[in-house]
Write a structure and sequence with these properties.
The protein has 179 residues and is of the alpha+beta class. It has helices at 3-54, 56-69, 76-93, 125-135, and strands spanning 97-108, 113-123, 142-151, 159-169. It has four helices and four strands, in the order αααββαββ.
């Protein structure tokens, strides 16, 4: 091998080492960035877990309260009829007229079973909203997922309110004592 070929080989080897080092450094930097991002994500998860653990007692108390106070349903038909009767009775007491009523299909989730009715009531706006407010107390487990209020075309002093009422029950029906 001649002197020039040796110099060329050494230069080529040096360039190869430099480029390989450069690529290796870039890969190490990318790897370190990924590790830092994972560490930050884990740190945030740890902070969330610590915050949840601090609130664990409160959430256990809330769970115990819900378990002790949320009603159990006896049967689908009785429960839905009970909800409809209650809502229409309260509407009558509030001076509202029930124009239409319809049962909703019961829905299940992991934590509750909900039964519902849809009503269209007619009355003065303050009476309608007082009625809705009175029906929704936290201890009653009743909610309003849908509400539409429109002016009554025939009576400008009144409104028509289309509303869905749902009541949440524990997922398992109440156990009845067998004789």
């Amino acid at each position: 091998m001649s002197q020039n070929e040796r110099h060329l080989l050494v230069a080529f080897a040096a360039l190869l080492v430099i480029f390989t080092s450069f690529i290796g450094i870039k890969q190490l930097q990318a790897w370190r960035t990924r590790i830092d991002q994972r560490a930050d994500a884990l740190s945030l998860q740890r902070m969330d877990a610590d915050a949840l653990m601090q609130d664990a007692t409160l959430w256990k108390q809330r769970d115990a309260w819900i378990t002790g106070n949320q009603p159990r349903f006896e049967s689908e038909s009785e429960t839905t009829q009970e909800l409809l009767d209650f809502a229409t009775r309260q509407a009558s007491q509030a001076g509202l007229t029930v124009e239409s009523k319809q049962y909703q299909k019961p829905q299940d989730s992991a934590h509750r079973r909900q039964f519902g009715v849809t009503l269209i009531v007619k009355g003065k706006l303050p009476q309608v909203f007082r009625w809705i407010y009175d029906l929704q107390t936290p201890t009653s487990f009743r909610v309003v997922p849908y509400l539409k209020v429109t002016p009554d075309k025939e009576d400008p002093q009144s409104v028509l309110c289309s509303i869905q009422f749902w009541r949440w029950y524990q997922t398992a029906p109440a156990k009845t004592a067998s004789l």
